[in-house]
Amino acid sequence: MKLPFAGRLLAVAMLVAASAALPLSSAFAESPEKPKVALVMKSLANEFFLTMEDGAKAYQKDHSGEFELISNGIKDETDTANQIRIVEQMIVSKVDALVIAPADSKAMVPVIKKAMDAGITVINIDNQLDPAVVKSKNISVPFVGPDNRKGARLVGDYLARQLKAGDEVGIIEGVSTTTNAQARTAGFKDAMEAAQIKVVSVQSGDWEINKGNQVASAMLSEYPQIKALLAGNDSMAVGVVSAVRAAGKAGKVQVVGYDNINAIKPMLKDGRVLATADQFAARQAVFGIETALKIIKGEKVDSANGVIETPVELVTQ
Questions:
Q1: pTM, entire model
Q2: 206: how many CB neighbours lie within 10 A of its CB?
Q3: What is the DSSP letter of 305?
Q4: Cβ(75)–Cβ(43) under 8 Å?
Q5: Dihedral sign of CA atoms 206, 111, 303, 144 in order
Q6: Is 57 exposed, middle or buried (0-12, 13-18, 19+ CB in 10 A)?
Q7: Which of 13, 71, 97, 254 has the highest CB neighbour number within 10 Å of its CB?
């Protein structure tokens, strides 16, 4: 039945009044804002983290309706102060989640607590925060990443099969204050001890090509009987390969690494590098982002003692 004009005006007025009485979300049915996820990495001069960032961006593009991504990195592996500043900027920006690969396992904890106090969901990837320092701050931060000790043990065991008991080797580890550097060194040592191979030196190459090269050169000079050098990541392994060549020991000193970055693949193929470990860089941040989004949605996250373990595999020729 068609209402007269006055009746139609009254109906419209009643509808407006009813809408005004409803909550804003009911009246307009606006969709909630997408959560903002900040990915904070270590050095973007390291191919591993560039691959990680590319993987995260590709994932966000495929899931653009689910979240926004902000990605940041620092200029070198030891630039902890700048990483702290980046996290503080993310707090001011009021991101919903922070997925972070800490430059330092201890020094980053206070600013991470600050982020959590601000209501930000924090997920730790790549390099695990120091458990004792985390506990002292009365916080709990899920770690999403591989078992670095297990991965390094795989590489070390493979190397040991090419050597004999009593041979000498050196370990070039990452930044010594990081738990992943410590875990990889421990895994290398586990393998060498099991094979009765002597570790004559452990020195830090700060995860970087040039420092890895310098340390390897000095080690080869000081210990001329070294049969192998175990690098805590592939960037350092690239520097080690150059040092071995410069010392005239190509083919005489084995080199192994960790990460399976693209730069190392030709060296695996031609034998300059014997083995590495793949921890799937392109998926590392994605694993963390997926976990953060689950927590934001209130979904259950399965973990063992706060750790969500991701894959790591031995890679050879």
A1: 0.84
A2: 23
A3: T
A4: yes
A5: negative
A6: middle
A7: 97
Token pair, residue 316, equals: 């050879």
Nearest in space to 202 (alpha carbons), one of 234, 168, 179, 235: 168
215: left (phi over 0), alpha (psi -120 to 50) or beta: alpha
| DSSP states of 219-254 | HHHH-TTEEEEEESSHHHHHHHHHHHHHTT-TTTSE
User: If you search the block for the tokens 């470990």, which residue do you land on?
Assistant: 277
Calculate ∠ Cα 101-103-108, nearest 5°: 90
| pLDDT band per the 50, 70, 90 thresholds, residue 17 | very low
pLDDT tens per residue, range 240-274: 999 999 999 999 999 999 999 999 999 999 999 99
Beta strands per DSSP E along the chain: 36-43, 68-74, 97-100, 121-125, 143-145, 168-173, 198-204, 226-231, 254-256, 276-278, 307-309, 313-315
Nearest to 205 by CA among 180, 168, 172, 247: 172
Indicate the fold that domain 148-278 takes in CATH.
Rossmann fold (3.40.50)
Domain map (residue ranges) of the chain: 36-146+281-311, 148-278
- What's the chain's average pLDDT? 91
Q: Are 148 and 184 in contact (CB under 8 A)?
A: yes
Q: In what order do the strands lie in the sheet with 68-74?
A: 68-74, 36-43, 97-100, 121-125, 143-145, 307-309
Q: What is the 3-state secondary structure (H, E, C) of 141-163?
A: CCEEECCHHHHHHHHHHHHHCCC
Cα 248 to its chain centre, rounded Å, is: 35
For residue 36, the cross-strand partners are: 68
Q: Which CATH class is domain 36-146+281-311?
A: alpha beta
Tell me if residue 8 falls in helix, strand or coil: helix
157-192 as b/e, with b when 16 or more CB fall inside 10 Å? Answer: bbbbeebeeebbbbbbbbbebbbbbbbbbebbbbbb
